[in-house]
Specification:
Layout (H helix, E strand, L loop, with lengths): L3 H22 L7 E4 L5 H11 L5 E4 L7 E4 L9 H4 L2 H7 L1 E3 L1 H5 L6 E5 L2 E3 L4 E2 L5 H11 L8 E5 L5 E2 L14 E3 L4 E3 L12 H5 L7 H10 L5
Parallel strand pairs: 1-2, 1-5, 5-8, 6-9, 8-10
Antiparallel strand pairs: 2-3, 3-4, 6-7, 10-11
Helix pairs in contact: 1-2
Length: 225
């Protein structure tokens, strides 16, 4: 059944994301943007990505980071194929797998976009406990790809915004903005500490076998002890 309200909300959210991304992409002191196409961010992030494909290359994460990162470049997408390229299948067809070494050569990310099961007005995200985005943040931080210039945006529905001001834990990646179909919340928070890989904790968890983790370890710990 066609849901006009949901369609309008999707379009509005995507338009807001594009409005946030374009000025950041135009800056010369930062590189591209990274979009997490996970289950929570989903459609609005992909619609925004389709519109941005007309303007600038950017990076997406594969689901669960199982296949790492893909680079999407307008030069690789035939005219008229932007809509398809902004789907999971289309990204697989037109995207190019990127190693961490290639990412590291691209400069600081100006924008990170992610979803969340819920997010508080203080910018604290709640996921399903897998820690995918926290791991992405730590990896990019270890590689020097994020710093104080990087803006983190969470995309959620209105019902996923928790109005209570909840404190952040040391490992939490607090977001700078929350975008919903009806509003944008600017979050005032202290500067984020650089992310760091907790190798001992990682080796005992479900993320230890990811190819990205092995590649990062080879880059940062060529002779681990």
């Amino acid at each position: 059944m066609f849901d006009l309200g949901a369609t309008i909300g999707l379009a509005v959210t995507a338009a807001v994301l594009v409005g946030i991304a374009i000025p950041i992409f135009q800056r010369r002191d930062v590189g591209s943007g990274l979009f997490s196409w996970g289950r929570h961010a989903g459609p609005p992030v992909r619609v925004a990505s389709r519109n941005l494909l007309l303007r600038r290359p950017f990076v997406i994460t594969t689901y669960g980071i199982v296949r790492g990162f893909l680079g999407l470049d307008p030069a690789d997408v035939p005219p008229g194929e932007e809509r398809y390229a902004a789907t999971l299948d289309g990204a697989d067809r037109y995207g190019r797998p990127l190693s961490l070494a290639e990412l590291a050569a691209g400069g600081v990310f100006g924008l990170l976009v992610t979803g969340s099961a819920a997010v508080s007005v203080t910018g604290v995200r709640f996921g399903k406990g897998h820690g995918y985005f926290d791991l992405e943040w730590a990896m990019l931080s270890e590689l020097g790809l994020i710093d104080g210039r990087t803006e983190v945006v969470a995309v959620v529905h209105d019902c996923q915004v928790v109005e209570e001001p909840l404190p952040a834990q040391p490992h939490d990646v607090v977001v700078d903005r929350i975008v919903t179909p009806t509003r944008t919340v600017d979050v005032d928070h202290p500067p984020r500490a650089p992310g760091r890989i907790r190798w001992d904790a990682l080796k005992g968890g479900e993320l230890k076998d990811l190819g990205m983790v092995a590649e990062l370890e080879a880059l940062l710990r060529p002779d681990p002890t």
